[in-house]
Amino acid sequence: MTSKRVLPAEWAPQSAVMLTWPHPGTDWARIMDEVEPVFLNIAHQVLRFEHLVISCEFVARLQKLGQELNHFAEENGLPGRVITVPAPANDTWARDHGPITVDTGDGLTLLDFRFNAWGGKFPWEKDNALNQHLANAGVFGGHRLQSVDFVLEGGSIESDGQGTVLTTSECMLTPSRNPSMDRSAIEQLLSELLGADRILWLNHGYLAGDDTDSHIDTLARFCAPDHICYVTCPDVADEHYSALAAMEEELQEFRQKDGSPYQLTALPWPDAIHDEDGERLPATYANFLIINGAVLLPVYDVPQDQEAIRIMADIFPDREIVAINCRPLIQQHGSLHCVTMQIPAGVVTL
Questions:
Q1: Mean residue pLDDT across the chain
Q2: CA dist list (Å): 173 to 118, 196, 209, 215, 219
Q3: What angle do CA 337, 338, 344 make, to 5 degrees?
Q4: Of 27, 201, 282, 314, which sits with the fewest C-beta atoms within 10 Å of its C-beta?
């Protein structure tokens, strides 16, 4: 590891956001007419601030989509433009199969970690190859795409941009990901690759209906180097109460590098949402995306949405808070942050 290597915080300047577009060959087939408008809304909002990289294996649909979105951006005088890349995909969770970009001190390198669908839960081979398709298409310019023989999803890590990484032991230590590596070995690898000189491990916290083994981006997020927002459940009768209360205690015990506690902000607990089979879905306000000048906040058409918007505006007073109804996304057990991956400034140019 070099002391200069760092994983940028999400609020660092960005060049683009990556979306892997849904198509009828994915699990979205049954509700394509519900979910595609959510992706379109995300795309429209991102283009107000930065570029978009969109991939899809339905080439005709992709070309038409790119033309429509670029026309929308030009007609509205927006700064963003769309790059489209035909590429096969099993699903749409760009946060987890997209590249993780680090600043090595000598420039930016895109790390292509292995993706195995959260420990082999679903088909994953196409998603695992997607970053190479993007690189071959020249999306990343002259920046290196480095293959890493280690399973890691972007949703499983949070960076403060200063060497501290926040994660969960439930996800990172699951044997179906990297069975030959214990906590110490994983810490060493994250130090070498991400420049992490501190790893804060949460040992509690989960959401019912979550397939990721408790990704950190559903539970707790860095808002600034000294500030963490997190999910809390006030209902003692709710199945989540004990685990999230224990997580809150852990967050209160965490310390910054200078020994001071973190500023902590609790996020609202949305009313329970269930699918048609009665399964609880993982609605969470923690799954927001920070982009240049804005925060895209998932909402779910429940009474707590307005309070979530207010709190997010307090946390990010210098950014526009853009609420996007992501109720269709949680039908497949993810939300807004899960379907997006930011790419730092200087990588994607048009």
A1: 96
A2: 12, 17, 20, 12, 17
A3: 60
A4: 314
